[in-house]
Design brief:
CATH topology of the largest domain in chain B: Heat Shock Protein 90
Radius of gyration of chain A: 13 Å
Number of helices of chain A: 6
Oligomer: heterodimer
Shape of chain B: globular
Number of strands of chain A: 5
Low-confidence stretches of chain A: none
Largest sheet of chain B: 6 strands, mixed
Strand content of chain A: 15-25%
Shape of chain A: globular
Number of strands of chain B: 22
Mean pLDDT of chain B: 77
Largest interface: A-B, 63 and 52 residues
CATH architecture of the largest domain in chain B: 2-Layer Sandwich
Number of domains of chain B: 4
């Protein structure tokens, strides 16, 4: 069984367009176990109900941003080990450094295409 | 499902419209002095998100523009640039252009660079930021080892601490799920006295009115019902224990029982958390309740056959407003209808820039909704036909068929309202478009104008919103161009340099009232009169009241501006505005105070699909008169009627005189009658406060009718708004009372042959 068949992913983005694009791309890689959330708190709730291997989250979201979500994930034992890919429109040093500190696994700058997304996921979990 | 990318792309553009709306909202807040970081963040994020999505679809023009705009907003966000009113005006301009670019991308049109370049240059000059070069960032991805063996590498969730315990970074973000709050509502003990039944009241209607407030659990106490041999059929033995879950205050609940005040023992107590009865949370308990209802079919001890409890939850999810209460059967007097309609939630409080939890929504093709609206329309007609057949079959009023049909009527109404709700949209999008019109038109004539909006969450049928855009645009341009004075003149008149245009929307008496007012110089009536004489619209001898003169503005071919400015005066006059409003079933009136300003009021029906009407007979024809136009109905006595002039009558109603019109004669169905004593008249009220009494032969019924447009086939028929199909399959014309009154001859005496204006 290939990794892509088992991998469970949660996509977090306040824009439904982005969620759709990422989910669509994941689908084209053969990753079908995908759920999505439109904000950080919802993501945490979903994770509490069903765990995933990888969280792909946007940085700029109202209320709780991507790094705050990451911080929450890393602060809770059950979600501490989850993979985290940050998607950001502006790859400022500040954001990346903080992400590094908080234990983000990888980041991807917008705009990106499917191969780029695939590469950044494979950099975290290995060949899909 | 076709191409998923095409679908995502389409949804992107819809999402963009929402983002543009919050962008406008944010800018309006900023314009009003809001410097809250979250407001600025909302603006930034809207631009940022549009850019992000546009990048994914390779919409380069949009990305480039959004990027520059975003950079500027980032400067504001970081506190490096504090925008003044000029800067905010420029941001508005950017937001407008961003909207243009989004729509251009959607429709595959290219906007020439010279449209955006000056604005971008201005932006760079003002904010003074150069595009920052993004540095190369070194980052080594952290590899995650996933053991996909027996545990599948998934973290164990059982030990997850409560989410609220999770430490939160920097800002305080609550991640706790909202706790189910104690239910809001009332516990009601209701014990009707015998006098309640004796005075013709029916507990069933009260319970129905309560049900409209929220979920209702009905328990009927039948203990006092004696054995049959001792039962007095005129006595009331039943009492009820009711629980209603509602957000409404206690006054609203009390109001339901207003008309039985003193005729019953009534005890209303708010439900407290401690008295919270799990009956609401456990549906299995509810089944037992039904067994406590007994089925006796003889009034007055007949208990209402109400399903207990009534499920309103699904309905509430669709409609945020409580259902309208005007669906209580026709025992109601018109006064009550007016009263309950007033309570319809008018514009809720203006939303602020604080992010609200997005509601779960489903996007549906409008065509599907329209099909549903049509089908429901047919259902209403069908239901009316069925009711008529049942009535003609002579079944007793309490037969299961009749009661079942009554429930059916109620359901049809509910379905119809819910379907209409789907089509309804806040008028906000339209108001925002007008904001742009004000900004652009004021700039082109060199006036400073601020647009104020009120009631932008008022919900209006989508079609109405779309078709209002053109007339409103024209009226706004007019207000800016002709209504408001130049800054110098304003100062001379002791006003602020900045003129103001106010747009309001509200629900009133089952209609939508939109007002556009300016604080300009008002209508120069002398000039209007002069102009009208010049254009042969009126003669010099004509004596005209102020409102008559104001109405001249709506005459075809009238234009007051002495020289055609580059703004209005495009050959489209107020007459075109008036006819487009009329084609929506609406009316427009004007009022003006010299030196203070002018107000245009537009009154529109809530929906274009159905109408509450009074079915009347006149001259052998059946007509429907819109209920909202009828103030009251009365039977004429000799004393009421006063002759006025050789051919006309007036009716004396409570100290005032109202012109009498014979509907049959006005429509050319018959000649004026010899006498109108004993005739039924409908007192018609109009937006401008004028009234008229319409004489008809008989009132047949009051019912909801489905509007079938006539204009497609017959053009505009004076005095007639549309047609409908009645329960017996008969076609009836729907009257346009205001139009009829304005064109009426008023002839109510036999002298000359009547001049038909329709028929």
């Amino acid at each position: 069984m290939a990794l892509r068949d088992q991998l469970r992913v949660l996509v977090v983005d306040d824009m439904s367009t982005s969620r759709g694009l990422i989910t669509n791309a994941l689908d084209s890689f053969g990753i079908r176990n995908v759920t999505s959330a439109s904000d950080g708190p919802t993501a945490l709730q979903k994770l509490a109900q069903s765990p995933v291997h990888l969280v792909i989250s946007d940085y700029n979201m109202p209320g709780m941003d991507g790094l705050q979500l990451l911080h929450s994930l890393r602060s809770n034992a059950p979600t501490r080990g989850v993979g985290f890919l940050l998607i950001t429109g502006r790859a400022d040093r500040e954001i990346i450094d903080l992400g590094k500190k908080l234990g983000m696994n990888n980041f991807l700058k917008k705009p990106f295409d499917a191969p780029k997304l695939r590469a950044s996921i494979e950099a975290i979990v290995g060949k899909l | 499902m076709s191409d998923p990318m095409a679908e995502i792309r389409a949804s992107f553009f819809i999402e963009c419209e929402e983002l543009l709306e919050s962008l406008q909202d944010g800018l309006i807040s900023m314009e009003n002095g809001d410097t809250d970081s979250e407001t600025i963040n909302v603006v930034f994020r809207a631009v940022h998100s549009i850019k992000g999505g546009a990048g994914a679809f390779g919409l380069d023009d949009l990305v480039k523009f959004a990027h520059r705009f975003e950079t500027a907003m980032d400067e504001v966000r970081a506190g490096r640039f504090t925008p003044d009113s000029d800067a905010i005006r420029l941001f508005f301009c950017c937001a407008d252009l961003l909207g243009d670019l989004v729509r251009a991308a959607r429709d595959d049109i290219t906007i020439p660079h010279n449209t955006t370049a000056p604005v971008l240059n201005e932006l760079d000059r003002l904010v003074g930021c150069e595009d920052d070069v993004e540095e190369e960032l070194d980052f080594t991805p952290a590899i995650l080892s996933l053991d996909m063996g027996d545990t599948q590498g998934l973290p164990d969730i059982t030990g997850l601490p409560p989410l609220s315990d999770a430490p939160i970074l920097e800002t305080d973000v609550s991640v706790t799920a909202p706790l189910p709050s104690a239910p809001k509502g009332f516990s009601i003990h209701f014990k009707p006295e015998t006098s309640l039944y004796a005075s013709g009241n029916e507990p069933l209607y009260l319970l129905r009115a309560l049900r409209d407030l929220g979920d209702l659990v009905v328990t009927c106490n039948t203990q006092r019902v004696p054995t049959l041999n001792t039962l007095d059929p005129d006595d009331g033995y039943l009492s009820w224990h009711l629980k209603v879950l509602t957000e409404e205050p206690i006054e609203v609940v009390r109001e339901v029982f207003e008309f039985v005040d003193g005729l019953c023992a009534l005890d209303i107590t708010p439900l407290s958390a401690s008295s919270y009865d799990p009956i609401f949370s456990d549906s299995t308990d509810q089944v037992d309740l039904q067994t406590t209802l007994i089925d006796v079919s003889e009034p007055p001890v007949a208990p209402p056959q109400i399903e207990a409890p009534v499920e309103n939850a699904a309905q509430e999810a669709v409609q945020p407003e409580p259902p309208q209460k005007d669906d209580i059967p026709p025992t109601e007097t018109p006064e009550i209808t007016q009263d309950t309609q007033k309570k319809q939630p008018s514009a809720p409080a203006k939303t602020t820039s604080t992010p609200t939890q997005p509601r779960a929504t489903v996007r549906v093709d409008l065509e599907r909704v329209d099909r549903l609206v049509n089908l429901v329309g047919e259902l209403v007609i069908n239901q009316a036909m069925l009711s008529q057949s049942v009535a003609e079959a002579g079944l007793p009023p309490n037969s299961p068929v009749s009661t079942g049909l009554e429930e059916f009527l109620q359901l049809t109404r509910d379905i119809q309202e819910s379907v209409m709700m789907i089509r309804a949209q806040p008028i906000k999008s339209l108001f925002q478009r007008m904001g742009r019109i004000v900004r652009e038109s004021s700039a082109s004539v060199g006036k400073q104008v601020r647009l104020h909006t009120l009631g932008e969450n008022t919900e209006v049928d989508k079609t109405v919103i779309e078709r209002l855009a053109d007339p409103l645009t024209h009226m706004i341009r007019n207000a800016v161009d002709h209504g408001l004075e130049s800054p110098e003149k304003r100062e001379a008149a002791g006003k602020t340099c900045e003129g103001s245009v106010t747009m309001t929307a509200q629900h009133r008496s089952g209609r939508i009232l939109i007002e556009i007012s300016d604080d300009g110089a008002g209508i120069n009536r002398a000039r209007v009169r002069e102009k009208a004489i010049e254009k042969n619209l009126i003669t010099e001898e004509m004596q005209l009241s102020d409102s008559d003169i104001d109405s001249l503005l709506f005459m075809p071919g009238f234009s007051t501006a002495s020289e055609i400015s580059n703004l209005s005066g495009r050959g489209v006059g107020m007459d075109v505005v008036k006819s487009s409003i009329q084609s929506l079933g609406g009316r427009i009136t004007i009022s003006s105070v010299e030196g203070k300003g002018t107000t245009f009021s537009i009154s529109l029906p809530l929906t274009l699909a159905v109408l509450d009407g009074m079915v009347v007979r006149v001259g052998g024809e059946t007509l429907v008169v819109p209920l909202n136009a009828i103030l009251e109905t009365l039977t004429l006595t000799d004393d009421d009627l006063k002759a006025l002039g050789p051919e006309t009558h007036v009716v004396q109603i409570r100290g005032g005189f109202v012109p009498l019109l014979d509907l049959g004669a006005e429509l050319g169905y018959r000649s004026p009658q010899d006498s109108y004593v004993g005739r039924t008249v409908l007192l018609i009220g109009q937006e401008d406060g004028n009234r008229a009494a319409l004489a008809v032969d008989a009132i047949e019924d009051q019912r909801q009718v489905v509007i079938k447009g006539l204009e497609g086939s017959y053009g505009r028929v004076p005095g007639i708004a549309a047609a409908t199909i009645l329960g017996d399959g008969q076609i009836a014309l729907i009257l346009d009372p205001t139009d009829l009154v304005s064109q009426a001859t008023g002839k109510t005496k036999k002298r000359n042959a009547p001049v038909p204006i329709a028929g």
